[in-house]
Amino acid sequence: MKNLIINFSERSPIAGLLKAELSFQPFVDFIENKRANDTTVKKEMLRFVQDGLKKFPSLNQPVPNDQLDNYKELLELIYAALTGITTEQGEIFWALGMPASMTIFYGTDALYNLLLDKNGKAIKADISKEISESDSRKIIMLYSIILQRFYEYTLPLKNEVIHYFIDPETGLSKYYKVNFDDRFINIILKQKLPALNFRKIEQHSSRPALVEYLQKVLPLDAFTYEGFNVISLADVTIEYSIESIKNSITETSVKPKEVCVADVKRSLKTLVGCNTIEFGFIPFVEMNKRPLLDFGSLSNSVLLHYGRNGTIPEATFLSMVNDFIKNPVPIFLKDLGRYKNSSNSLITMLKASGNAAFALIPLFYNGLLTAVLEVYSAEAGKLDEKKLLKLHEALPYLAQLLKTSVDDFHHKIANIVNAKFTALQPSVRWKFNEAAWHYMYNGFLQKKEPELESIRFEKVYPLFGAIDIRNSSVERNMATREDLYYNLSLLIETFTKIKGNYKLDLIDEMIFKSKKWLNTVSESLTPQEEYRLNNFLENEALVALRHVKKIQPVTAGSIDEYLESLDDKTGETHKNRRNLETSMQMINKTIIDYLDEAKNDLQVSYPYYFEKFRTDGVEYDIYIGQSISPDISFDVLYLKNLRLWQLKSMAAIYKKVKGLELQMPRRLFITQLIFINAEPIDIAFRNDEKRFDVDGAYNIRYQVIKKRIDKVHLKDSEERLTQPGKIALVYFNKEDAEDYISYINFLQEQDVLENDLEYLDLEELQGVSGLKALRVGINLD
Q1: pTM of the model
Q2: CA 406, 410, 412, 418: dihedral to nearest 10 degrees?
Q3: Beta strand pairing status for 758-761 and 617-624?
Q4: Residue 464 — φ and ψ, nearest 5°?
Q5: Tens digit of pLDDT for each residue in 638-671?
Q6: How far is Cα 75 from Cα 55, in angstroms, rounded to an integer?
Q7: Helix, strand or coil for residue 747?
Q8: What residues does 95 pair with on adjacent strands?
Q9: CA 527 to CA 533: how far, in whole Å?
């Protein structure tokens, strides 16, 4: 027990306003009255307490704070009388406090350890702020006592006081309900008691409004308070965690599902009281009567990850999934380490994941299997039956959350199909409607299923453009080498650290191999070497580290630091590759957003077909001509307008991407290419691929050239045609390029392009010769 004053009311608006005195006389009166009226065996215990109180003859006088040290024996007696002989003070959060104040002066070690910092002196910052912000609740509590005692009226307002604290061991929040026992407080009226209108009190539904009204009609300073409070804290973390999960479900309509799921996982960790236990979800979604096992970032599933990366045959994994769906029962593997040579496929996957314990819990909604909850931990002994039982109350709410996710998934799929695939684009939808009618009509006539007619558009003018990320393969290889170099450097550092705590020749061998690989990575790395290096890291180095950590816990800190760095989403050993992918996604999104917005505006002048492809960059095809829109007269003017837009858009896209340079975690550049094909071609819809492609032997030449010019060099030179900051236009005959030359001159006058137009000859490609090119710089000013 501790006898230490902590005042939480220093900044309170009512601090100093109320006259309150610490007195033990109300407790003396309570014991005397209790003994006089008690006829049970407690009477003897009450006599013992009463005899103890007689040792302090001045209890009918107020006790100054500076004299509390003289009452330690009395305080111990009060604690024993109120909590009983079976209660251990280290197990409960209990204290005595001043009347009408958030000040405690005596309590259990457990409570003081909760409130004070590690030095046992200052109040923890988050606790002080959180408690000090609940003044309105304290005031309402005082009014509750006054109204009950003087008016026999109970306030129609729930006034729970809940405080949360951060558990230093887990870093998770814990929630406690604060209970106040006011039996040992006397409230003395200093003036005439005013009449109150209880109907008006009940009209104030909000706490602040009620406080303001009561302070007007019944000032707190009209009373004197003497005695002491008995304060106890009850752990309500489980109730609050469940409530938080419920709130996450209701917020799915306004928040992204991924955010809500992340909130739920935090609540589940709080519920089980362990930060090293992780959770994964597998929503059961059927696609074409088969379970869809890739649910994106929502899943975060151990089984999906290790079941589909080659740990076991995919057919075996799918069979396991189907068997579980047929017989969904909970599975708990408390100690995976004891399965040394198991041939069980589930055990094989889980051991590959590096987890020490794993549980699989089916989730049911309206009696139907909706999803599966995975519970796992990489630390041995952290996951047990007690923690799993704590999850039981949350399971129906998790099932509801996953059910909404499954429903939303189906809804999105339907929208995408309608918007992106059904009848393709509005400009060609009429052709598909016509073909569908012919299909139905012919079926009616033939009394059997007819063949689908070919959907073709003849003599359309093609426009091809490509915005490519410069040297993307080189950048990807470089990022991989940089990450592997960091990985090996950190691995050497980790083995060197643990070497001082554990003598084993294996560690010296690991350091030697790591340094050897470090030299290899510094010079070059072939695909075969990269495969061997990853095999060394996963099957030798990691195995050694986990073995050392298990038998030498003192090395856990250094080893865990390395293991954390391996996380592909947050770890440092994947930083360069993550940065590269982020930069590439930023570039592609900028390009696609621009093209999507522009294509809708351009459709107003004349309908055309637009199709884009995402590579390491973005490519697109545009087809325009009379056959696409037979009811609207086509003129070459519309083609010229599109060609001018194509050139302008290349300059605009480059500037937008250039503007991303400061935001990109890894600086990348783009190149831009246009293929000029002046003659119209025929295209046809490929039912098997659900896309348009060129049709006819002559037109295939157009497709071949498109695929081969992306990395073409200048004639008799090692210089690539495409260069950052320039637009390259490939053509065969100068007549084909005349329109574009005119547009270039126009855009140079508009200061969109630089005055550096080049006329270039290109190297011969396989099956293609005589290609020429224009190249012009983009004016960034």
Answers
A1: 0.49
A2: 180
A3: unpaired
A4: -120, 135
A5: 999 999 999 999 999 999 999 998 999 999 999 9
A6: 12
A7: helix
A8: 107, 231
A9: 10
